[in-house]
Design goal:
492 residues; alpha+beta; Cytochrome p450; five-stranded mixed β-sheet; three-stranded antiparallel β-sheet; 17 helices; 10% strand; heme
């Protein structure tokens, strides 16, 4: 009799636990889906995870493991290869899109989609930055910044500065012994973007800013928990410090311009201070600072990481290294005797090195996701995206699709021989009106660095089997601890 009572009690407890789990797993659906009425039945498959945290735990668990793609794979296993899945991510009901047709539509349809970055990200990068402003404001500021950053004349001017610093850095690193290759590259690319925007080469200012940006980036992809000890809390403090530093720079520059209203534009800061709309309104300090926070961050992180991985993968694959080096040696042979520098024309005539860069961009997918928000109910690929829901364009799925890229986890620049990516299948810099405005500058920096590295240097990683981290960006855990060796005299 007593044994029977024990089994009854055990069954009741088990049933209660399962019942609570059933309720918790459906709580988000009741909160976010029921109010949609009939539209809920045309949502993509998926689940909204647990109350409050949604799918963030499984997302962070996957991206802190050795297999970040297991997050999306779990949806494919449970719901099939539908290409769109409903989730609750970063505090919002969202639709993840993973197929070219849907990604292309979301990124190019400005009438039905607007930026949808999480509130936590907006707090860190800035509500007046490119990721937060309206389409009209974005178009206006993009016109201002695109030519000074990506224009032919601007790139030609930056070439000498970039090349001088690359040559100097490689010579310095070759004499250093072991060092963190990624950390050194981040300092190099940060120096370049600081010069372009602020005409500054102050080591003290650069080191202070670079430290704060490191903390800021760790908070961008973390859970928005503003408590001491959490990445987001530290990132908010970094944001505050960055704003204070940039405010002092803006104040100094405004004071300087008051004393000489005819000062010629020398850098992006001058351009931002001088711009006026049709009503004579100039940018506020908040707008200028948020643009600086965003541009200086994006302008050095991506270039450094891509350069590191391109160098590492070339060094790991001698056949790719030799093919890339032969192309650079041919450039030197074709030069007139009096030419000592790399030119923009030479870079644009390269054929193999751009394939190496594109393959690196695909292989690491530096920005694995971007965020949009539906401005109205919209149907894509047979599914409804409700008004106000976020849309997560999942670049990793595009770049690692085996139907588009056979053996996608293999690094192989030769896959780009006689191949042009179909629309929506290769989006390292995004697509549409919000395409990354610094893409040409980034590729220029990477090309200049690889040109000189291939001709005269080799990289030896000290921990070649070091595990990779995927948040906030793909990198070796040891920041690529390595030795750079000079293997030939300078050819130029």
């Amino acid at each position: 009799m007593e044994l029977g009572m024990i089994w009854v009690a055990f069954g009741a407890i088990l049933g209660g636990v399962l019942g609570v789990k059933w309720v918790l797993r459906r709580a988000n659906s009741w909160v976010y889906e029921v109010k949609l009425g009939e539209k809920r039945y045309s949502l993509p498959p998926g689940d909204l995870g647990w109350p409050l945290i949604g799918n963030m735990w499984s997302f962070l668990r996957a991206f802190k493991s050795t297999d970040p793609d297991s997050f999306i794979s779990s949806f494919i296993t449970r719901f099939g290869q539908t290409g769109m899945y409903k989730v609750l991510m970063f505090g919002n009901p969202s639709i993840i899109v993973t197929i070219p047709e849907a990604c292309k539509r979301v990124l190019t349809d400005d009438q039905n989609f607007k930026p949808g970055w999480p509130t936590s990200t907006m707090e860190l990068i800035g509500r007046k930055s490119f990721i937060g402003i309206t389409n009209e404001e974005h178009k206006r500021l993009r016109r201002l910044t695109a030519t000074p950053v990506n224009g032919h004349e601007a790139l030609s001017i930056y070439m000498q500065y970039i090349e001088d610093n690359v040559i100097s850095a490689l010579n310095k690193w070759a004499a250093m012994g072991e060092f963190e290759f990624l950390t050194a590259l981040r300092k190099l690319t940060f120096k370049i973007i600081m010069y372009i925007f602020l005409s500054s080469e102050s080591e003290h200012v650069m080191e202070a800013l670079e430290r704060e940006y490191t903390s800021l980036n760790y908070g961008v992809r973390s859970m928005a928990i503003n408590l001491p000890g959490f990445a987001y809390h530290k990132a908010l403090k970094a944001r505050k410090n960055l704003v204070n530093i940039f405010q002092s720079i803006v104040n100094e520059r405004r004071d300087r311009k008051k004393g000489n209203s005819q000062t010629m534009k020398k850098d992006m800061m001058d351009a931002l201070l001088d711009i006026e709309d049709e009503n004579g309104r100039k940018l506020s300090d908040e707008e200028i600072i948020d643009i600086l926070v965003m541009y200086l961050n994006a302008g050095h992180e991506s270039s450094a990481h891509v350069t590191m991985w391109a160098t590492v993968k070339l060094q790991e694959n001698p056949e790719f290294f030799q093919r890339a080096k032969a192309e650079q040696e041919e450039i030197i042979r074709k030069r007139p005797p009096n030419q000592k520098r790399l030119t923009l024309k030479e870079i644009r005539e390269m054929e193999y090195l751009p394939k190496v860069i594109d393959e690196t961009l695909r292989w690491i997918t530096f920005s694995f996701v971007v965020f949009r928000e539906a401005k109205a109910d919209i149907n894509i690929c047979g599914y409804t995206i409700p008004k106000g829901w976020k849309v997560l364009v999942w670049f990793r799925s595009l770049h690692f699709d085996p139907e588009t890229y056979p053996d996608p986890k293999e690094f192989n620049p030769c896959r780009w021989d006689d191949y042009t990516a179909k629309p929506g299948t290769f989006l390292p810099f995004g697509l549409g009106s919000r395409l990354c405005p610094g893409n040409d500058l980034a590729k220029l920096e990477i090309s200049v660095f690889l040109h000189h590295f291939l001709l005269n240097y080799q990289l030896e990683r000290l921990n070649p089997g070091c595990p990779r981290m995927y948040l906030p960006h793909s990198r070796p855990r040891d920041n690529c601890l390595a030795i750079v060796r000079k293997v030939a005299a300078e050819s130029e």
